[in-house]
Design a protein that fits this description.
heterodimer, A: alpha+beta, twelve-stranded mixed β-sheet, 29 helices, 14% strand, B: 254 residues, six-stranded mixed β-sheet, 8 helices, 35% helix
């Protein structure tokens, strides 16, 4: 073993540049994993805190639907919750903002806590401020609770005894205590003057301090235990505030074996029936927590993706290096077999080479990654706002792809080396390989490439483990197919692109022809190496832009939407919008909008929620004739089932609707089928609507999100259209909340229209109306255009796609080092023939251009392979997304974004040319004798 | 030979080896018989395609016969597995190649030590051999820093490192100039005489064959005849003997 290690090390030392490039590539791959996984590790640590930030020990909380400060949770809710066998505890809490200061501090109000603005602190008898985005942020939030156990862990001291309501004691959140400058045993003074009370801090509670703006904002908006600064028994809270306590929210602890999703789904309708309709704050919490956990999920996905890419990079770069080594040392290995070593010993030398390469890269990469993390975390809190750490788990994760990649990469070279016959040592040096291309592998490759589409479209996997199997098999087959196709691709590029490229580089076509085919496996290796990064990049772009198509509001949507908040405007007044200057009078309709729950979980959202699987819909009531059946319909639908005339007639009769095509797919409903909706303000009854038609509605999600259509909850299964009268009657909507309009002429007079709308509403309400969202539910009008939403979605998508594309681009940059290695080795093997060219009279410049042109040809091969891979992978990914992604299920048409794809391919061509520059310069600078001296095939 | 005598270093009996080239079958060895006594210097001569290299490869265990037998120090090579053959070759057979075949990344000393890596006295043996072959000053040099003659001497030292029963050399002077080639031949002759080393050399050069104790002429895979060179190291005489052998063989085949 010692001898094998010595030989392996000696062989690596033979080409130090190659080892350096390989090590840099694997080190960079290791670095990427450490960067991504280190951030994820840190995020996980803080996310454990984040998971508690809102609810602490409570599984979920119940809070009023309305964000009004006057809203409270009725006592009956608490009683019913406690009666449920799935509920272990239901503890109401009363949240009130107060002024508080440490006893030793001056009477001046305390400085605001991090992430909170100092507002007008409500003292005893002062108006409560409540929660929500419009609330002023209090100096200290008092939480009155008789819960026997604290919501968070006790750091010091003890929790409160609700039986000791007369005792002037409080528990303080750790962050609030720091802010107030108090600790265990200190005194906090609440209120002013005669109403001031002195509270002794009996315990410090480990309510997490949320770093970063997102966390702080979430906490401030959530009625939850995490928002508390001081905790007191309810009786004491009433003394401090000077009013009777009412539950701001109820913390609920479920039994260990309770199914939270089923519990929530079963309780949601019951909660909305109470006098003050309530809803589970868990959904809201999870939204906010998921914003953070989405960050954690994203970070986890990044770490996984980085690991996968590092595995690929390590595999490819080390494979190229080792394959080149075995090819170049074939006779040496044969000689070693002849004089001394067994097959096993030869194999172990090759294996040790791979291990050494992996180890050098891993050690370098780990050190570099740690340094990078430290620099990034020190330099900017924005990059790693949760901190950054490369613990044992991260380092182990970084080691996995490098060593696994090296092990996989060693298999074929080991196999080739041990198959060398000792008698080959006696053979004369081999001539250049003939580079004969067989079509059989290409045919097999095409078949393998077809596996992924077959598995995706003809044999869809469904949910669960089968998706994983389908992905693994499909992608593996696609990758294997590409490898098999590569020789044919090389031959095709050589045949068709080489003559034109030769002319472009001022070379005789005969010089360039056959060069890449003559070095087939090196060309294939370099091309495949470059394909890793570019192929993934193209796949991301194709997938991303294809998926995006579903979320950009399509031409079906009118130009703009006017909203009249908070209570709408009578329909006859709303109809006056049609007469505004700049509005097309024939394409302008008032709307009523509601977001009722489906009576039955038709989309099976309880089993798995997604963008198309939710328990409610947004229903828009409008005039069917003008909307889609008239000569100039407002909504220019792309009909999938039914027709405009037919649907309008049915809608006119009442209780009929038009739904998006994906809604029918998810629910299994068909034209003529019906479904039931539960009016939120009258949940005792349900109303039935019949499907009159289905249409494609790309972008309805963003349109409803931005325009305030989603009045109840933040997600909906579909945007449904029905006649105005039915919707207004069924859901108790007196006023039109919106007006949909088209402009009379492009580009539209949005400013003028919105000012006219304000005047209209002011005239109706006889009070001041603002433009844009107003605080505290004040009257306002707002206009948002389809173009605005499209621009916003596209910009957000571009940013998101760029983020996702970063890893493939990093991989591309890294694998360029492997490509340089391959091209260097190729040139080294051809030094003699290059020397002959120089001896025959070809100039240095010719050699330089020849080698660079070969590099560009390799780049063209990589582009062709990448385009094929990217389009197939992106196209299949679109359909697989319905099983794996929350945002799947819309089935958009395939989109190939040629601009970013083209830019990516251009970048690869440039990179390939650049990769060829070092060996080109080295060859061009050498004297002819130096090139000829080693002989045609040296040992 | 009595039962107590040590086995002969080399015995080849009715060796047959064929190769396929497309649909054509080429009979490289057609029942060759050859034996070498301890300390004998045997040269195998023949034209290109006569089977001499194939015979040498078979004796070295680098290729297996279709029929017949090869025994080296009494060991039938056909009875050994691939790994067993490798180990046997390492211990009992020294190989010298035309193209030297030194590992470029190893020093001369490390190249010599290759067959004896698993022996504790490997380094000492290598040093002694390099000294014997006049390469002590060059022991740390890599092959690209050695002349052709020095490289071949290093290869010979490597072949002797494990004290093999037999040294096989395939055109050992093919890559050398005439002076260096003669040096190598003299060296092999001396090793043979001093150490009673059995040496079998394949060559087509009479200038190499003059150093042999016995010359075996092969044609068309069969051993035509043997003759002994005159003691005056006259290449012309060897060439004449070789031509006579070929003529005799041609007449016999008519």
């Amino acid at each position: 073993m010692k001898a094998a290690l010595a030989l392996a090390a000696a062989f690596l030392r033979q080409y130090p540049v190659r080892v350096v490039l390989t090590s840099i590539a694997t080190a960079a791959a290791t670095c990427v994993v450490i960067w991504c996984a280190g951030g994820y590790e840190a995020l996980l640590r803080s996310f454990d805190e984040y998971a508690n930030k809102a609810l602490g020990r409570y599984t979920l909380s119940v809070a009023p639907i309305s964000a009004s400060p006057e809203a409270f949770v009725p006592p009956e809710v608490v009683e019913e919750l406690r009666a449920d066998s799935a509920v272990a505890a239901a503890e109401p809490m009363w949240a009130q903002p107060i002024s508080a200061r440490a006893e030793t501090a001056s009477a001046a109000p305390p400085a605001p806590a991090p992430g909170r603005r100092a507002g007008n602190a409500g003292g005893p008898g002062g108006p409560p401020r409540g929660f929500g985005p419009q609330s002023s942020r209090p100096a200290t939030m008092l939480l009155g609770t008789d819960a026997p156990d604290p919501p968070f862990a006790i750091l010091r001291g003890r929790w409160l005894d609700p039986r000791q309501g007369a005792a002037l004691e409080a528990a303080a959140a750790a962050g609030a205590a720091r802010q107030l400058g108090v600790d265990l045993g200190d005194t906090v003074v609440t209120g002013e003057g005669e109403t001031a009370l002195r509270l002794t801090i009996a315990g410090i509670v480990d309510a997490p301090v949320i770093a970063g703006p997102a966390g702080g904002t979430a906490v401030a908006h959530l009625p939850s235990p995490g928002a508390g600064g001081l905790y007191v028994p309810v009786a004491l809270a009433e003394r401090i505030v000077g009013r009777t306590a009412r539950a701001s929210f109820v913390g609920v602890v479920l039994e260990p074996d309770a199914d939270i999703t089923a519990f929530r789904f079963g309780w949601a309708p019951r909660l909305s029936r109470f006098a003050v309709p309530a809803q589970f704050q868990e959904a809201h919490d999870i939204e906010e927590a998921l914003d953070e956990s989405a960050a954690a999920e994203n970070a986890r996905l990044w770490a996984v993706a980085a690991t996968g890419i590092a595995l690929l990079v390590a595999f490819l770069v080390i494979f190229c290096t080792m394959s080149m080594g075995v090819s170049e040392r074939a006779r040496q290995y044969a000689m070693l077999r002849a004089v001394a070593l067994t097959r096993l010993q030869i194999g172990s030398i090759v294996a040790l080479e791979g291990l050494l390469l992996a180890t050098i890269g891993f050690l370098l990469g780990t050190a570099s990654g740690q340094v990078l993390l430290w620099i990034a975390a020190s330099a900017s809190h924005g990059i790693f706002r949760h901190g950054a750490a490369a613990g044992a788990g991260t380092i182990a994760l970084a080691a996995l792809p490098v060593y696994a990649g090296a092990a996989l990469a060693s298999l074929v070279p080991i196999f080739r080396a041990v198959r060398l016959r000792p008698v080959d040592a006696m053979a004369p040096p081999p001539g250049p390989p003939l580079g004969k291309i067989s079509l059989a592998p290409a045919a097999a490759g095409l078949l393998l490439c077809a596996v992924n589409p077959l598995l995706t479209f003809l044999f869809p996997p469904g949910f669960g483990v089968r998706v994983v199997a389908s992905l693994v098999v499909g992608w593996a087959a696609l990758a294997a197919g590409l490898v098999l196709i590569t020789p044919a691709a090389v031959a095709a590029v050589d045949r068709f692109a080489s003559p034109a490229l030769a002319r472009m580089f001022g070379l005789r076509p005969q010089l360039l022809a056959g060069q890449i085919t003559g070095n087939l496996w090196r060309t294939a290796g370099a091309a495949l190496t470059l394909t890793v990064g570019l192929g993934l990049f193209i796949a991301v772009q194709v997938w991303g832009f294809t998926m995006l198509d579903s979320f950009v509001p399509g031409p079906w949507a009118p130009d703009a939407l006017l909203s009249f908040g908070p209570d709408g405007i009578p329909p006859r007044k709303a109809a006056a919008v049609a007469a505004f200057p700049g509005v097309d009078p024939e394409r302008c309709l008032p709307l009523v909008v509601e977001q009722p729950r489906l009576r039955d979980d038709l989309t099976h959202s309880a089993k798995r929620a997604s963008i198309t699987r939710q328990d409610n819909v947004v229903i828009v009531g409008l005039d069917p004739e003008q909307a889609f059946a008239g000569a100039r319909p407002l909504l220019q639908f792309d009909w999938v089932e039914g027709s405009p005339r037919q649907a309008a007639d049915l809608l006119e009769k009442g209780r009929a609707c038009i739904v998006p095509d994906h809604f029918l797919r998810e629910t299994g409903l068909a034209l003529g089928d019906s479904f039931q909706l539960i009016p939120p303000e009258n949940p005792a009854r349900s109303v039935t609507y019949v499907v009159a038609g289905s249409v494609r509605l790309p972008g309805w999600h963003w349109l409803t999100k931005q325009t305030g259509f989603r009045t109840r909850t933040h997600r909906a299964a579909a945007l449904v259209f029905a006649d105005y009268a039915s919707v207004a009657r069924d859901f108790g909507l007196e006023n039109a909340s919106h007006v949909w309009l088209s402009y009379a002429s492009a580009p539209g007079e949005a400013d003028r229209i919105v000012h006219e709308a304000r005047a209209l509403l002011q005239d109706h309400l006889q009070r001041e109306v603002s433009i844009g969202a107003a605080p505290g539910g004040a009257p306002h009008v707002r206009l948002i255009s389809r173009a605005d939403i499209q621009g916003m979605v596209r910009a957000a998508a571009r940013r998101a796609l760029w983020m996702i594309s970063v890893l493939p681009l990093i991989a591309l940059a890294i694998v360029c080092l492997g490509a340089i290695n391959v091209i260097l080795a190729s040139m080294r093997a051809r030094r003699w023939s290059m020397g002959v060219l120089r001896a025959l009279g070809f100039t240095r410049g010719t050699l330089l251009r020849l080698v660079i042109a070969e590099g560009v040809l390799i780049g063209i091969v990589a582009c062709a392979l990448s385009l094929g891979f990217g389009v197939i992978a992106g196209w299949c990914g679109r359909d697989i997304a319905q099983y794996t992604s929350f945002f799947g299920g819309m089935h958009p048409a395939l989109v190939i974004p040629w601009i970013p794809v083209g830019l990516g391919m251009l970048a690869v061509l440039l990179l390939a040319a650049l990769c060829a520059v070092p060996p080109a310069v080295s060859l061009a600078r050498a004297e002819p004798t130096a090139l000829l001296q080693p002989g045609r095939g040296s040992f | 030979m009595s039962a107590t005598d040590p086995p002969a270093p080399l015995e080849v009996t009715a060796a047959v080896k064929t190769f396929k080239q497309g649909s054509k079958v080429i009979r490289a060895l057609a029942g060759v018989n050859l034996a070498a006594a301890p300390g004998e210097f045997v040269v195998i001569m023949g034209a290109s395609g006569s089977g001499k290299s194939t015979l040498l490869h078979a004796i070295a265990g680098l290729t297996r016969l279709d029929s017949g037998a090869i025994r080296v120090e009494g060991q039938d090579l056909a009875a050994l597995s691939d790994a067993g053959l490798t180990r046997f070759r390492r211990r009992k057979i020294g190989l010298v190649f035309q193209a030297f075949n030194l590992i470029p990344v190893l020093s001369a000393e490390d190249n010599v030590r290759l067959p004896v890596l698993d022996r504790t006295d490997g380094r000492a043996r290598a040093a002694a051999l390099l000294d014997r072959l006049g390469l002590t000053a060059r022991r740390a040099h890599k092959p690209d820093a050695l002349s052709g003659g020095e490289q071949q001497r290093t290869a010979i030292a490597r072949a002797l490192a494990a004290d093999p029963a037999i040294v096989l050399a395939d055109e050992p002077t093919g890559s050398l100039d005439s002076i260096a080639g003669q040096e190598i031949c003299r060296l092999l002759r001396d090793l043979c005489s001093e150490q009673r080393r059995t040496i079998v050399v394949v060559t087509h050069e009479p200038a190499v064959a003059v150093w042999a104790d016995r010359i075996v002429v092969l044609r068309d895979g069969a051993d035509l005849r043997e003759f002994r060179p005159s003691g005056d190291r006259d290449p012309q005489a060897v060439a004449r003997g070789y031509q006579d052998a070929l003529k005799t063989g041609a007449e016999a085949s008519r």
